Amino acid sequence: MPSYFSIELAFPYQDLNSTFVSDFYSAIFAKYPFKTGYWNSEENTLEEIIVWNQKHLENKFILGYKEHVSNNYKQILLSSDTFSEIRHFWSYSRNEIRSSIIIPEFDVLVEEDRWMFNANRFEQIKDMCKHIWEVCPVSILQSCLEFDGGPINTNKVKTGAQPSINPICIINQDTFKKITESKQNIEITGIARRGIMLIDKGLLE
After folding, report:
1. What kind and span of H or E run contains 154?
2. pLDDT tens, position by position, 172-184
């Protein structure tokens, strides 16, 4: 299994409603259509996956240590002409809904052993991230490589910690004002829904 680049999104649990999962899927399918279920969900229809994941989020489901993985949230694969694989899955933690979009690192990096992103392919990722932020109640969007330590805790970012920008992050204006330190080469762009999109231009080639 390859190492994965990930887009990590966090939503306040209070924003969960009866169409939360289907609304999010509609947003992401506008950029990358549904392909199939994944990892114990290949035989499920999209509607079955939506109902399953919606119920799990409503129940604040967390997979038990000894519980079979088939009881977990159902993953999906998305169609893309650019990336060999785009996968999405949900999780819940600490009164927060988490959403992960993962792509093999070899699809986004210039070379697998260099921490530099293909600038042309990144444009598609940026477009997807911007769209999701604008139409969904995301509180923070971070990006990570598999071994860079992962996304920073949402509450820490909201109190001034630097989020994970490898190479993109989107936060709201209030959170942005509290960040006390920033990496060099960061491009700062205001977007809809009072969002601030941060891109580390030094990581693009």
Report:
1. helix 154-158
2. 999 999 998 777 8
